[in-house]
Amino acid sequence: MSEQFKPKILVFCCNWCSYAGADLAGIGRLQIKPYFRVIRTMCSARVDPEWILEAFRLGADGIIVAGCHPGDCHYIGGNYRTRRRMALLRSLLTQFGLDPQRLELAWVSAGEAPKFAATVNDFIDKVIELGPSPYRKEKTADATGSSKEAV
Amino acid sequence: MPEKIKLALAQGATCSGCDIAILDLDVELLKLFEVADLTFAPLATDIKFKDVEAMADGEITICLYHGAVRNSENEHIARLLRKKSKIMVAYGICAAYGGIPGLANVTSKKKILDTVYEDTATTVNPDHTRPQTHHITEAGHELELPELFEEVKTLDDVVDVDYVICACPPTREMNVKLLNVILDFVNGKAPLPPKGVILASERTLCDECPREKPEKVVIEEIKSVDYTKLDPEKCFLEQGIICFGPATRAGCDAKCIVVNMPCRGCMGPTAAVLDHGGSMLSALASIIKVSGAETEIPEEEIAKFMEKLKDPLGTLYRFTLPKSLLKRVVKE
């Protein structure tokens, strides 16, 4: 099965470093597996934990949050907050029954196109190995059995 | 004198604290019963399902449903009363967000039954007897038991809900507010509020908290309420106690805070957030103290600092797990 499994990966990139890095990876024509979608945010700290929970609810198999290297945040300390939240969120996701490896934090600067490509490729390999997210299966089962009664 | 309206108090998976909360209206109860008749209220009146089934659709004016929906009987009551009532109120946090019974979503039906009928030290069950939903006795009597659901649901997962009242249990002031809404409607003074209204504030509890608000909060150690001497003037978070004020809807008049207990979040989240726990998680992560310059600390160490919060799921979703984004625990 795992050969056919095409994961859905979400990559949150901060505007100042990681998005530019991703852009450069595109310009440089670096090969990245086509299973990820990038969402640009002004800062990695703008990524609310709710968004990550919502993405998993909607069936994402893995999520990368990418920001500037520690010390390099455009807003001075945004990425420190991200780091704290992601650490706490990982232990929460573990309790929810998800493998914490499905949530990755990466520091990618504007010049690190190869690092962006490598991070995403490695992550995709890891998620393919982990298989589909259990919340994804739940969702398909739910879709058939909606029980709310219209009045 | 206009005709009396009909009031129903329906029970789901509940501790019945909400029924008691209504009794807490004391003298105001007399005002309530001047305008309302109690119909379906299993705790106070002798009434059977068939009596409710015999009613016309919409005959009951207002139904307060309290408790979560976690077995087939809860669901049956919810659907039946929805059909017979003009206004359905999700009354109390269990009906609105799942409440404490909602924490059953961290486990599964099978595990719950295993624990109750096999695993506990005091259980003696050599025949491995389990409750059956249907049984015919030797004398030929048919016996039915409700079926336990795989997961706990909230009232609005099953039926259409008109109004929501949170808290565990709803406070006397909230009940008076609801009573006045009913009175104004019955006396023709004001129309009913629009559907979907939550009878509380749109702000967070910190907004109405009477304590001194610090400029910046840093938690060095997460402390337990039982073993800490608490300053009644200082912010709980500042004292290292987890207080859900920053993420919880106001409208309870800070009742716990006033008696020196931190908020546990029984009012649920404000309308602006999707997920109560996720919102509180952001707040907590920012205020837990890490030692040393953050630039130099490796990720693993940050994770260790964040582990100061024991049992994040149980703490962050104490009252709202079935209405959270992920709803329940899964197995990878």
The H-and-E topology of chain A, N to C, reads as: EHEHEHEHH
The CATH topology of chain A is Rossmann fold
CATH architecture of the largest domain in chain B: 3-Layer(aba) Sandwich
Strand content of chain B: 5-15%
Largest sheet of chain B, in brief, is:
5 strands, parallel
Low-confidence stretches of chain B: none
* Dominant shape of chain A: globular
The total count of strands of chain A amounts to 4
**General form of chain B:** globular
Largest interface: A-B, 37 and 43 residues
The domain count of chain B comes to 3
Helix content of chain B: 25-40%
Strand order of the largest sheet of chain B: 2-1-3-5-9
CATH class of the largest domain in chain B: Alpha Beta
Q: What does the average pLDDT of chain A come to?
A: 89
Query: What fraction, in percent, of the residue positions of chain A are helical?
Result: 40-55%
**In oligomeric terms, what are we looking at?**
heterodimer
Listing every helix as H and every strand as E from the N terminus to the C terminus, the arrangement of chain B reads EHHEHEEHEHHEEEHEHHHHHH
Please state how the strands of the largest beta sheet of chain A are arranged side by side.
Answer: 2-1-3-4
Describe the structure in brief.
Chain A has 151 residues and is α/β, with parallel strands linked by helices. Helices cover 44% and strands 15% of the residues of chain A. A 4-stranded parallel beta sheet of chain A has the order 2-1-3-4, sandwiched between helices.
